[in-house]
């Protein structure tokens, strides 16, 4: 079933300072995500992570890809403090200070990355956030660059795990604008913004990796 802790933002890390938040799902999915990223990322350059949350992914990816620069971001100031705290604790020099970026903002004043990564955001945000995310990815990514999405998605008439159906209901009970998205809807939004899906990879706990390329 879907890891429902993905919908719980974080809790304070009891072993560290108050600013360091911990999201249990990061420990369970990070290696599977690394295995995908190893095949799609270039050798060098800056990867922009949207909705970095606690910052645990950014720090781990920085350690696993030492020749790349990681730019974490999150619209929540508390999350940005957690990202900075985890980065300081890990001592990773290739993880930059977090940026307070919001997918719903009109624009992002940042340097162009070689890839964009977004983990477990689309289903806990209004659809307009996905629209904003692809709009900005179009403006930032060069031709051939990768846009990576990870999380739970529905696939049309394909069988859906009961855990995902329950998770979708739980999300909508908290905010009617939230919910697990259809892959077809993500593909249509991507195509509208000049992206083509190059792969769909099944991941642990009924999640998917959706890989898009800037055309």
Task: Reconstruct the topology from this structure.
Layout: E1 11-12, E2 21-22, H1 24-40, E3 45-50, H2 56-64, E4 68-71, H3 77-90, E5 115-119, H4 127-140, E6 146-151, E7 153-154, H5 162-174, E8 181-182, H6 183-192, E9 195-203, E10 207-214
Parallel strand pairs: 3-4, 3-5, 5-6, 7-8
Antiparallel strand pairs: 1-2, 6-10, 9-10
Helix pairs in contact: 1-2
- Overall residue-averaged pLDDT value: 92
* Global geometry: globular
Strand proportion, as a percent range, falls in 15-25%
Oligomer: single chain
Our measurement of the CA-to-CA distance between the termini, rounded to an integer number of angstroms, reads: 34 Å
Number of helices: 6
Which structural category do the helix and sheet elements fall into?
A: alpha/beta
Question: What helical percentage do the residues reach?
Answer: 25-40%
Rg to the nearest angstrom? 16 Å
Contiguous uncertain segments of 5+ residues: 1-16
Largest sheet features: 6 strands, mixed
How would you describe this protein?
With 215 residues, this protein is an alpha/beta fold. Helix content is 36%, strand content 21%. It is built from six helices and ten strands; from the N terminus they run E-E-H-E-H-E-H-E-H-E-E-H-E-H-E-E. It has helices spanning 24-40, 56-64, 77-90, 127-140, 162-174, 183-192; strands at 11-12, 21-22, 45-50, 68-71, 115-119, 146-151, 153-154, 181-182, 195-203, 207-214. Strand 1 (11-12) and strand 2 form a beta hairpin. The chain is globular and about 45 Å long. It starts with 10 loop residues before the first strand and ends with a strand. Mean pLDDT is 92; it is low at 1-16.
């Amino acid at each position: 079933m879907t890891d429902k802790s993905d919908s719980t933002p974080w809790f304070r890390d009891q072993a560290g300072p108050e600013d360091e938040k911990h999201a249990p799902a990061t420990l369970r999915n990070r290696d599977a995500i690394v295995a995908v990223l190893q095949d799609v990322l270039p050798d060098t350059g800056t990867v922009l992570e949207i909705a970095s949350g606690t910052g645990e992914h950014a720090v781990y990816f920085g350690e696993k890809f030492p020749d790349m620069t990681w730019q974490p971001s999150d619209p929540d100031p508390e999350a940005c403090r957690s990202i900075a705290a985890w980065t300081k604790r890990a001592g990773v020099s290739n993880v930059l200070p977090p940026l307070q970026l919001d997918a719903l903002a009109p624009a992002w004043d940042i340097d162009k990355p070689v890839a964009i990564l977004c983990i477990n955001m689309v289903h806990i945000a209004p659809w307009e956030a996905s629209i904003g995310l692809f709009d900005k990815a179009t403006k930032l990514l060069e031709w051939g660059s990768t846009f990576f999405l990870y999380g739970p998605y529905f696939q049309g008439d394909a069988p859906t795990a009961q855990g995902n159906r329950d998770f979708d209901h739980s999300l909508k009970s908290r905010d009617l604008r939230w919910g697990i998205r259809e892959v077809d809807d993500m593909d249509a939004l991507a195509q509208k913004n000049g992206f083509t899906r190059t792969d769909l990879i099944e991941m642990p706990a009924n999640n998917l990796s959706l890989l898009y390329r800037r055309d």
